[in-house]
Amino acid sequence: MAEVTYNEATSTWLLQMSSSAYGFVLSGEARLPYHLHWGPLLDHEGLSTISAAGEVASSVERIAWGKEDPHEYVPWGGQRYDEPSLKVEYPDGTRGIEWRFATQLVVREDQATTLVLGLADSAYPLRVDLCYRVFDDSDVLERWARLVHIGESGTIVIRQAHSANWWMPRRDAWNLSYLHGGWGSETQIAETTLGPGKMVLESRRGTTSHELQPWFALNAGDAIDEEHGEVWSAALAWSGSWKLVLETTPGGHLHASAGWNDFDSPIELLPGKEIVLPVFAGLYSSEGLGGASRAWHYYELAHVLSRPGRSGGSPSFPSLITSTSVPAPVVPLPSLRPVLYNSWEATTFSVSEEGQVRLAELAANMGVELFVVDDGWFVGRNDDRAGLGDWTVDPKKFPRGLDPLIERVKALDMGFGLWVEPEMVNPDSDLYRAHPDWVFHFANRGRTEKRNQLVLNLARDDVADWVYKTLDRLLSEHQIDFLKWDMNRHFSEPGWPAEVGNNPERSWVDHTRHLYQILDRLRSAHPGVDVESCSGGGGRVDLGILSRTQQVWTSDNTDAWDRVSIQEGFSYAYAPLAMMAWVTDSPNPLTGRALPLRYRFHVAMAGSLGIGGDLTKWSRAELTEAKELVAKYKVIRPVVQHGRLYRLASTRRGLPLGAIEYLSRDGSELVVLAWWGIRRYRPWPTRLRLQGLETTARYRDVETGEEYGGAVLGQLGLRLPEGLDFTSMLVHLVHVEGR
Ligand code: DGJ
Q1: Contact of 21 with 15, CB cutoff 8 Å
Q2: Which of 375, 483, 558, 584 maximizes ligand 1 atoms within 8 Å of its Cβ, making it the mutation to test the pocket?
Q3: Which structural domains are found in the chain, ordered by start?
Q4: pTM metric for this prediction
Q5: Which of 488, 555, 590 to mutate to test the pocket of ligand 1 (most atoms within 8 A of CB)?
Q6: CA gap 261, 58 in Å, rounded
């Protein structure tokens, strides 16, 4: 069980997690919290030794011409030049912060413990609560801050408010891994060595973005090791504009601070009001990037992903299983995701009852469990130039309404899902004609369209209310089990003329806050309805949206070979259960690359399997093969979606091979998926060394019946298929009992 303890004698707080610890000291006259430790397990004695060494504050301040003492939450003020966690402006124009310890409180919730440390400004009515939550079964530490105006008058302007600030231990060199990309090429891993100065990762786009992910992993030294070595990783749970600053100070310290992006975003804090900042979660692993990923995945499964039956708060989970020799208890992980069919690539905007029924019949016969009608079903939506905002069923396409299609889909024993893009409007729509002021805009400036659409200002209460009511009506009038919630452009001209003089810039944050509130309200009004977050592919994937949805659309690029690296990047931060992956047509509509059906399936089976091709054009042989592969996926699905993931081979450094192993939590089953790209020049490895197996156990191949020793699989490895380009492999092994 996680423990949060305070030691009076040493004035140290210690947060002990499954296999790591975090600690700080309350020091000086103001008893402010200074960071001491984030790493392996440690006790208070260890903390006080670090504290007594005083290495951090004194040596740094001798070298640097400014203060670099490692505040847990860095206030801007005094001789402070590094990235602040908090910068405010008081009504009389004072801009620096001077504060002191005010309160401390430990709250025990179900399976989680939260420490709340209150700091108060010594002259102004601002209290900041630093919150730290640890879970009994995880190494993830959730950190966030709450800003409270405790006065009765005057507005405090928040110029920059980050959620938390993480200090790394002293090391000679740091290597940073982060995720970048673009539309159709999301979650590419990048590595760089951090030198002096700042590395800023951010989104100013109003949403998480395809371009950068609010996630990082750091390791000391210059090489990443998949299964060994210390890794410090953190991720921000926010789906709007964000900023993450990694700074190596003149004194040689590295700290990472993140939160809402301060760009164009002063926020007014009124008397008696509070601002709760999003979680900036962090974890330490001594098992390399692989260990860090597995810790993220488990945390997401256990504590983040919303799921049927979860009523809020932390669900109960027993200890994280870290060794296969320990029998795993049955844990209530989120429900397995259904195999889905999505109509987008098959029909684009040309949807009709007849066409969708035909696809539904073919999908059902293949074993699909959830049928999703994508874009094009609502009035005026014949292409991307019109219709967004007018969320009523198009009577030309569905003369009998949606219900006959839904009934047919249900009769075929599938759930029914529908695509929506509620935050957007086409200028050519009744909604826009009635409410042109509902979109973000500046006076006397153009309204830049992207994909012929504008962004509704969801920060407005009337717009948020309209979005909620529109979706609530849809879900109440039809038997819908699933929404694909899309968002196909980023913000521009983020103005709100009606609120000029009344902090219109708050819309950067309030848009996302209202999005979360709408999702929460819909979830409680329609608890059986699952939601997929999509934003022109993977433009809104982060811990914040994952806490309110069940899955995300990874990328509009469904080319299986491109997907190998997109999905690998995704796996560094996010769990396979949440990663929707479709099998689509060949040649791929985006890239033109032709790939075997089996290969396309093997790639999509690495996450939550979906089918997105035009099944009316698949041959009988292809439909039969697909049916067999869907059946196979259902067998391996619990291992893929709930298991522990090991990246066995990576395309990251140019190797034309990706391979992932999934090990069930009790160690009794494992699945290996491997995919070759184009093989050239050198003799690439022909075996994959498996991870996490019991060396003395034996494992049987479910398909061939062949048996292997655990030590052999771990040392010599599993043989890869012969053959040239774009061959793939799926191996399912089970632990042989009683040997
Ligand atoms: C972008 C999404 O990523 C696609 O899957 C599809 O839903 C289209 N939008 C529909 O307009």
Answers
A1: yes
A2: 375
A3: 3-303 (2.70.98.60), 340-536 (3.20.20.70), 647-735 (2.60.40.1180)
A4: 0.95
A5: 488
A6: 32
